[in-house]
Specification:
seven-stranded mixed sheet; 375 residues; globular
Length: 375
């Protein structure tokens, strides 16, 4: 029992550390807690969507039928995982309420940062893995605007225009020297990524209009740069949504990562592969099942609990499972079985939808040309 109490204390310390870090970041970046929003979302009630900047303006634009836009990019260095799916499911909900969704796919970034061997390789991943998964999640073609950077080269015309609104020192101040190791990375981070975020602002895409970008805390400086450029270019500065991301299957303080396959459940994983990963996953429980029945676990740092919370359980079901875990009424083995069952069912259905989605890709790709006379 002594060792179990020590183990529980260590896991509770991780939970408290993460909560403290989140609160500190919200304060440091002058963001607003979502509790003040008049917006009915289970993601807020479940503490998945935790902070924002000017999302209240986005909500008001939805209510007034002004068609705001939301932008969420993908680096196609690998398939999407359950962590990505959390965000895209929320985007689909916002799309149902009237928002347009822009999804830039940066195969140029994948190549520049050496996450892919070539532009072509990253493009193939986008077409074979990423875009079919996005479509299979439920996006509407009429309100979804997807492009692959190397195919939609008009994005570079916008990037060139936006680059004139920046100085080298400002870009260095945001990203530092490590991120800006090559001329390509400098242009991508300082201009192309801004073009992704500000694309809905130009005339051809219904701009200027209110937009928001879902990000993690580490991407906040990028949004600040976008706001700076938007003001210089007489565009509407973007808002942002901060998500509490799904943790790694191996480390409660890490994130699911495409570069570390054992940390994530990918949307292309077979149900059997997902089961194997989940069986080996870290949990918020204790080594001693007998002691856990008495002391309980720490669901807040458990990927098994959190996958169910983020994807499969209602708010009431989430609270019930959390209570059972903390009271020791459910042990990790049974919780894993439940999570595995949910995940395998989801993946089986998702794979069937992906096959149909592969025939619909063209409907979602941007065809509109950018008139450089308007820049």
């Amino acid at each position: 029992m002594k060792e179990s109490k020590k183990e529980l204390k260590e896991k509770q310390a991780i939970k408290e550390k993460l909560e403290k870090e989140y609160k500190a970041k919200i304060k440091e970046y002058a963001l607003t807690n979502v509790s003040s929003l008049i917006y009915d979302s289970d993601l807020i009630k479940k503490d998945i969507l935790i902070a924002h900047h000017k999302f209240d303006e986005f909500i008001n634009a939805l209510k007034q039928k002004k068609k705001p836009a939301i932008i969420s990019g993908v680096n196609p260095d690998g398939p999407l995982h359950l962590g990505h799916a959390v965000i895209f499911k929320e985007l689909i909900e916002l799309q149902k309420q009237g928002a347009d969704v822009f999804i830039p796919i940066s195969n140029d970034e994948s190549y520049i940062t050496k996450k892919s061997n070539s532009l072509f390789e990253a493009r193939e991943i986008a077409l074979k893995d990423v875009i079919p998964s996005l479509i299979a999640l439920g996006f509407e073609p009429q309100k979804t605007f997807i492009h692959i950077d190397s195919d939609y080269t008009d994005i570079y015309n916008l990037a060139i225009y936006l680059s004139t609104k920046l100085t080298l020192n400002r870009v260095k101040g945001v990203f530092g020297f490590n991120e800006l190791s090559t001329p390509g990375s400098f242009f991508y981070l300082g201009s192309v990524q801004e073009a992704h975020i500000l694309l809905p602002q130009i005339k051809e895409f219904g701009g200027p209009r209110i937009t928001t970008v879902p990000v993690g805390f580490d991407q906040h400086p990028q949004i600040l740069l976008s706001r700076f450029i938007a003001k210089k270019a007489n565009m509407v500065p973007p808002g942002e949504l901060i998500f509490n991301f799904l943790p790694s299957l191996k480390d409660p303080e890490g994130k699911m990562s495409k570069s570390k396959p054992e940390t994530a459940i990918f949307l292309t994983d077979s149900p059997e592969e997902a089961e194997r990963k989940l069986k080996r996953a870290y949990t918020g429980g204790l080594k001693s099942g007998a002691d856990q029945k008495i002391l309980g676990g720490v669901p807040e740092i458990c990927p098994i609990f959190l996958i169910q919370k983020y994807h499969f359980l209602s708010l009431k079901e989430t609270k019930d499972l959390e209570k059972k875990c903390k009271s020791g009424k459910i042990l990790c083995g049974d919780c894993k079985k439940q999570c595995i069952e949910f995940t395998k069912k989801f993946l089986k259905e998702h794979h069937e939808k992906r096959e149909k989605a592969k025939k619909q890709i063209d409907k979602f790709l941007i065809k509109e040309k950018i008139d450089i006379k308007n820049l």
